[in-house]
Amino acid sequence: MTVDAHLHLWDLDRVAYPWLTDALAPINRTFAFDEVRPQLEQAGIDRVVLVQAANSVEDSAAMFAVSSPLVAGVVAWVDLLDPAAAARQLDGWAEHPTFVGVRHLIHDEPDADWLGRPEVRASLALLAARGLSFDVIGVLPRHLEHALSIADELPSLRLVVDHLGTPPVGADSAEPWAGLLAELSRRPNVSVKLSGLTTLGGGADAAQLRPYVSHAFDAFGPARVLYGGDWPVSTLAGPYAETWATADALLAGLSADERADVLTHAAERAYRLPAR
Question: pTM to 2 decimals?
Answer without folding.
Answer: 0.97
